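The records we work with from here on pair a chain with its fold. Here is one such record, which you should read through line by line:
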Amino acid sequence: MTRFAGKRALVTGAGSGIGSAVARLFESENADVVAADITGTDVHLDVRDEEQVAAVVHDVDVLVNVAGVGSTTTAPETPLDVWEDVFAVNARGTFLCCKHAIPSMITRGGGSIVNIASVAAIVGMRNRAAYCASKGAVVSLTRALAVDHVNDRVRVNAVCPGTVDTPWVRRLVGEVGESLDELTARQPLGRLGTADEIAEAVAYLASDAASFVTGSVLVIDGGLSAA
């Protein structure tokens, strides 16, 4: 397939997991991919830093905001600096990348943004206070941007993954003393998601096949939020 031939796509958080899967899929479909991350990619990008964002996020047709961090505490247990860092990456980082991508998208005649939120933005999850709140902000920002820029031919959508088997999830599981078997048992479909499955959904939303889709939130959680 060549859904992205002639398109320049920037993927943040592309060093591993979902971001890496998105970058690989877009490359396989002939996009000119800029894979950015704070570590592990050719393009260094700390999405918390507006100067860095402004230097990297421009002249793109597609932006996929994957960069994110988690937290594993209740609100009373969450230090203020942890709360602020989770918001700095997940919410402010997404905002900054959109802020600097949209003007050049408008100049180029339009574009598509896909923000990676989380099922934690849709349902409450134990020991995830800061994370749930920050991803809820991503969903609300997505809808606001979609409405603001619909006449600019810039589409903005979000994907809310459930529990996906990535290095990031495995690390968080270790922090709270859970096991992958326990997580799997809680999934109505009886398994964890894969990064490639999320990447396919991102590619659909970013492509012309979704030209009538903006302001939408696609939940991919194995039935978790419906149970």
